[in-house]
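Slide 14.
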Amino acid sequence: MADQAIRVLLVDDHQVVRRGLRTFLEVQGDIEVVGEAGDGEEGVARAQELRPDVILMDVKMPGVDGIEALRMLRDAENPARVLIVTSFTEQRTVVPALRAGAAGYVYKDVDPVALADAIRSVHAGHVLLQPEVAGALLSQDQNPGGHGRGNALTEREREVLTLIADGRSNREIARALVLSEKTVKTHVSNILMKLDLADRTQAALWAVRNGIGG
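Slide 15: predicted structure.
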């Protein structure tokens, strides 16, 4: 396994699902499954222990569910990117999951190749925000105070935020704006501070709600 392999943790209460995911992902040359967990509480503990790059997280689990586990990971400042795995009938849980810090979601019937691509995408810093979820955010939370906070952003910060909403990674933003990655990181930190947001996923959602990018 290459040193640069994406380290993945599987969190799902069904052993058969975990086994199937592991079987497929382990044949990917750039993805390494480093551990498994059967519920949210164990998933958080394993994430703190193993420090994976990406966590595949089920939503509906006994005890601590996926959304609560996301909040626990955020409180623990765990840097792992979380990709929610949900069924279409659980679509209403996607918005709360994104607000809790998920970097995106896939449906349980996702094509295996598309799943591997989704893991690579969130690991690269992208936000997997599909049109129906953007619509749900717009209808559920118009965030009337959002534009006021947006006025505090500089023109450059608005450019960076637009690219975040488009799913660009820091490296891609740096290339597009002819900046260093360090400078982009500074802009992202300033955006989060000014908008009182926890991470770039929330920044992308804020931008969509307020008509910036996306």
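Speaker note: The chain is about 50% helix and 15% strand.
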